[in-house]
């Protein structure tokens, strides 16, 4: 039976029961028959009782009411404004909608950890490579915590496509990614809305080299050239998110977005070098080099290959302990299971899950050499080398189950994922100095870092200290730059202030592309959000071009797919409208009749008051 027929039949039965009308068919249940059943009249009456029970025990079909979870204006002004516009569009389509605002960490905890939401609006960290979608959408991760499939989305065909793009390289991979994106435009596990254009303010009189690296990456803070006698002593950043001053755990999902500061504290084997124009390339970092082993066909299985990684010599952690291949091997095992086999089921880290999944096995063959066995193509496996390397002597003890006196802790939660990790012990170009929560976090140059060696051609820390001052507002952050109290805004400026910024000879506005994207996420664990037809209809209620102009003041690009431009096939590229699911209306106003027609064609029904009705 179709959803539409089932919905109509159940609704009519419920209405007849409420009114006492038997529908004229002779099979209705009268109050007298119901009362008679209590004294055991006849076998026929017992049949009516069974029918009554069958009717009243059926799920009701009620008007749909949902809540949009998002951030307040002081957390992300664009998210709350976007949520309000989406709420208005849903209301126009007959869906009762409310908005719930939560702080940054509470928002991420409810969405990523507890999966406690209907739909949400916010930024997805995305990635420069489309393989981030494997972690974001594969059904294997639907019940895990973190950025791995927070939607609870499950689709075996999509799983196959996610896996296929991992297994090949070059043009074959590009074709596989196209097939994946085509499937996602149909399924709409989330609605990609736009990619923001990032703006930061910098002082050119204090430092040169701002255009050499993207300030959302570690290399944006390295290689800067001090322009005055005093500027080499301290790089003064102002950040509009207090979380880095509260928690420096690189694998924590609630306190990390891109994790730029964590990337300055922790090295990875490779680094994604992104310039101010968005061009990027994966380069060796802690690894001196890596070599793919063509292998012996008899020694390797059909779907495995090996990668030999050589570490740079004489590397150390900030506490003076040597960094060896054992620490690297430990890191990959630990990110796959932070309990290190100590719990009934693995407890994967809530970050980097998809990247380490590309590694089948890793073995340290000596202090500087590792052999990785991988089950993906080279492009995806190489990106697995970008995870932060953790010191085994610090993190081993954090594999124990987390415990908080008086509270029930979810199974699989280890100390590793809940510790604030202050002070952090990494091996990166900066080490921890001090912090005052919600005021600042200060990093100091790590003098023994390999980038400072004469034989290493990589950007290095050129300042004695990086002080990150916390200021929650774009307007006051700008004032700090203009007053020469800060050198850069390390987080992006809110779009509403951009037009009012006056550049000078000393102060300049940096514009750079983003691989993050704003989106509407559905909790597919709940009805009707698990229904792709419902998600398609909702996607057509968002006028992406209009919200870019009205909410983002034009400082964003509307998108139909969630990946970077070079991966978008021509048929899915934005060309003034969504090529697959165009907006049902114009200039931000929903065409109510068209919206109703779309929902009804998808199998949903409206009541007499114009409310969309769904089965709960």
Automatic annotation (TrEMBL):
The keyword Signal applies. It holds the Pfam family SBP_bac_5. Residues 281-611 form the Solute-binding protein family domain. It comes from the Archaea. GO terms for biological process: peptide transport. Keywords: Signal, Transport. Residues 1-29 are annotated as: Disordered. Residues 1-11 have a biased composition (Polar residues). One of its GO terms (molecular function) is peptide transmembrane transporter activity. Belongs to the bacterial solute-binding protein 5 family. This is ABC transporter substrate-binding protein. The lineage of its organism: Archaea, Methanobacteriati, Methanobacteriota, Stenosarchaea group, Halobacteria.
């Amino acid at each position: 039976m179709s959803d539409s027929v089932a919905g109509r039949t159940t609704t009519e039965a419920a209405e007849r029961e409420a009114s006492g009308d038997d529908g004229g068919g002779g099979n209705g249940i009268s109050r007298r028959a119901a009362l008679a059943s209590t004294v055991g009249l006849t076998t026929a009456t017992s049949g009516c009782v069974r029918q009554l029970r069958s009717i009243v025990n059926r799920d009701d079909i009620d008007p749909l009411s949902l809540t949009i979870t998002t951030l307040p204006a002081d957390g992300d002004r664009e998210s709350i404004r976007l949520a309000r516009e989406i709420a208005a569009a849903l209301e126009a389509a007959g869906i009762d909608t409310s908005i719930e605002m939560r702080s940054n960490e509470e928002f991420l905890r409810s969405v990523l950890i507890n999966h406690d939401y209907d739909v949400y609006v916010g930024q997805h960290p995305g990635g420069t490579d489309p393989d981030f979608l494997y972690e974001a959408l594969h059904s294997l991760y639907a019940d895990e915590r973190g950025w791995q499939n927070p939607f609870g989305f499950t689709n075996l065909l999509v799983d196959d496509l996610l896996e296929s793009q991992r297994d090949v390289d070059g043009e074959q991979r590009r074709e596989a990614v196209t097939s994946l994106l085509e499937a996602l435009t149909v399924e709409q596990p989330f609605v990609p809305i736009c990619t923001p254009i990032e703006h930061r303010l910098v002082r050119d009189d204090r430092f040169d080299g701002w255009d050499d690296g993207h300030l959302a990456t570690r290399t944006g803070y390295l290689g800067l050239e001090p322009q005055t006698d005093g500027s080499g002593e301290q790089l003064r950043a102002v950040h509009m998110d207090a979380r880095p001053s509260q928690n420096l755990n690189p694998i924590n999902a609630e306190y990390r977005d891109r994790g730029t500061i964590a990337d300055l504290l922790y090295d990875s084997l490779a680094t994604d070098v992104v310039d101010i124009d968005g061009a990027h390339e994966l380069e060796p970092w802690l690894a001196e080099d890596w070599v793919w082993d063509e292998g012996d066909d008899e020694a390797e299985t059909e779907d495995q290959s090996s990668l030999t990684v050589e570490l740079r010599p004489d590397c150390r952690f900030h506490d003076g302990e040597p960094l060896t291949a054992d620490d690297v091997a430990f890191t990959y095992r630990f990110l796959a299971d932070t309990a290190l086999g100590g719990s009934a089921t693995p407890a994967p880290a809530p970050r980097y899950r998809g990247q380490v999944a590309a590694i089948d096995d890793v073995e340290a063959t000596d202090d500087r050499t590792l052999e990785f066995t991988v089950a993906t193509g080279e492009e995806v496996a190489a990106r697995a080398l970008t995870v932060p390397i953790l010191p085994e002597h610090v993190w081993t003890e954090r594999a124990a189950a987390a415990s908080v006196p008086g509270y029930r802790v979810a199974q699989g939660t280890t100390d590793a994922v809940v510790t604030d990790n202050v002070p952090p012990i990494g091996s990166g170009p900066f080490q921890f100095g001090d912090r005052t929560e919600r005021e600042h976090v200060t990093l100091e140059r790590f003098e023994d870092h390999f980038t400072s060696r004469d034989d290493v051609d990589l950007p290095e820390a050129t300042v004695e200290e990086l002080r990150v001052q916390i200021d929650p507002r774009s307007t006051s952050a700008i004032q700090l730059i203009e007053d020469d109290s800060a050198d850069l805004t390390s987080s992006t400026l809110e779009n509403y202030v951009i037009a009012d910024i006056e550049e000078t000879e000393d102060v300049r506005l940096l514009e750079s592309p983003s691989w993050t994207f704003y989106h509407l996420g559905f909790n597919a664990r709940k009805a009707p959000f698990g229904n792709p037809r419902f998600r398609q209809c909702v996607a057509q209620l968002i006028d992406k071009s209009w919200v870019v102009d009205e909410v983002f003041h034009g400082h964003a690009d509307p998108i139909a797919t969630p990946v970077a431009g070079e991966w978008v096939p021509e048929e899915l590229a934005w060309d003034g409208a969504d090529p697959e699911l165009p907006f049902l209306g114009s200039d931000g106003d929903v065409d109510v009749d068209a919206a109703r027609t779309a929902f009804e064609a998808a199998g949903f029904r409206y009541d007499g008051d114009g409310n969309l009705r769904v089965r709960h």
